[in-house]
Amino acid sequence: MQNILIIEPDPAIRKIAIQSLQGSNLFFFEAENSETALANIPQNHIHLCLLDGSLEGEDALELVVQIKKKAPQVPLIIMQGIGEEGAESFLDAGALKVIAKPFNLNELKESVAEGLSRAPAWVETKDESLPVKKPFPFKLTVGLLLGLTFLGAAGYGGYRYYQNSKIIPIQIFVLPYEHLAGITLNGEEVWTVDWFNQSIYRHAQDPILSQQKDYKNENWHPTGIAFDGKNIWTLNSWAKKLSRHANDAGLSTDLELPSVGTDPSGLYYDGESFWQCDAGQSKIYRFKVADNKIEVLTSFNSPGQKPIGVYRQANDLWTLDSRTGLIYRHQIDKHFSVSEVYSLPEELSQETISCFTGDKTTFWLGAEKSRKIYQVHPKNLKLVATN
After folding, report:
1. What angle do CA 44, 306, 29 make, to 5 degrees?
2. I need a surface site. Which of 155, 156, 292, 378 has the fewest CB within 10 A?
3. What predicted TM-score, i.e. pTM, was given to this entire model?
4. 92 in the Ramachandran plot: left (φ > 0), alpha (ψ -120 to 50) or beta?
5. Same domain, 124 and 202
6. ∠ CA(354), CA(360), CA(364), 5° rounding?
7. Could you tell me which residues are beta bridge partners of residue 310?
8. Domain of 335?
9. Domain end call among 99, 134, 169
10. For residue 288, what is the domain's CATH number?
11. Is residue 252 part of a domain?
12. Structure confidence by residue, pLDDT tens digits, 306-331
């Protein structure tokens, strides 16, 4: 077993690094600052450090010097933002390598493999005075391996575009109900579902997202919603059903079919076919409904453990993992390769996202606990990994 310490203030970057490197013989520790990092190294027998080269509010170069004094044989890999200076100073201080951030996932894995090949056989030290971060165990998933194995080339042009473009204000709408589990757009309307209150809500797409009507049925437990241009469709993860509703006064149900997967949620219609998440099995399905039957066209393992929303835009597919808050951009190819990974804006960093969709220019994200819907422009996202 080899221990890796990730020293990075941004939790999203720590998460994607752990996801990228996870393996049966690796164990991960996290540190947000130099104090916690210096405590971790001797107490947890760290074999390699990944260090943020900017380390907000602290001197990362000085931390390299301190680590080398405490554990001179531990390899250090510096993650440095594009265009930042000081790479030679880190190398002169004893760092093994400096890589760009947002990092290229293949380069990250190769650099860590090189560093671990030089990892020390640990000798105990006596410096145990500071608190230690608990280890971050991460379960290996086939979906993540597939996503990382087939990562598409994207380069850093997107990083510069997103980071240097003017930030567009995030629109926030407060809802009068809780338990938001799904969202879809219907022209000038926004439709949502509340699984606990067994309700479907229709809102005007105005500055306050005015509620126009609510539909309630004791047989509904909706966990996903989509509009096909004519009818409203909902998912029910309790009954494991896909239902079609006529767009009439009572939103009457005129078709029910067994749903795909074990924990259906995150329904989306792209004009040709449906996309659906399965949060229980960490899968994404694409299917169509013909002759009152579901035909599964394809499925793939989600790179995130708990996918709860899908949105397709031209040749890109976007999925969101509720557990980490990371948004994955997939190519629509044989393997649905992940080309880029984004974290949410700071305003949403403490939210648990419960639903996700998009329109031609923005993403719509629902937060169940705070009863809020956020309308977020892609420029507000932070690119944390690419290939």
Report:
1. 10
2. 292
3. 0.71
4. alpha
5. no
6. 20
7. 319
8. 157-386
9. 134
10. 2.120.10.30
11. yes
12. 999 999 998 899 999 999 899 999 99
